Prior knowledge:
The chain is 28% helix and 40% strand.
Amino acid sequence: xxxxxxxxxLNHFQMKRRCKDSxxxxxxxxxxxxxxxxxxxxxxxxxxxxxxxxxxxxxxISKSDEKKLDLYEDYPILYKKIFFYYYxxxxxxxxxxxxxxxxxxxxxxxNVVKRGYKDCNLxxxxxxxxxxxxx
Length: 135
């Protein structure tokens, strides 16, 4: 199955540790969404926003990887699954159930995400935009 990562799971080392079968395919853009950080965990989330883009990594994952991600993402309590199509292929990602207000991520978490941006060769401007307090 295809999985779209946009937060700490962009980090290849972390993703491999969580999902041993995962294979990074390439970077892609999710249109009409924006990246943000929220909840008591100060974790990454995506939300609908017209004319906005979330850059992320496309991974191939196994059924057992999906089960591990479900546990890690505290599905279905903290995150729910959303699906979109990329060139006719169904892609799964997670989005927070409760859309609380913006909370700046911890330095430790942010460093993991930044490393992931490097691993996937993503444009840091999308991350920086998400870190500006959002109105």
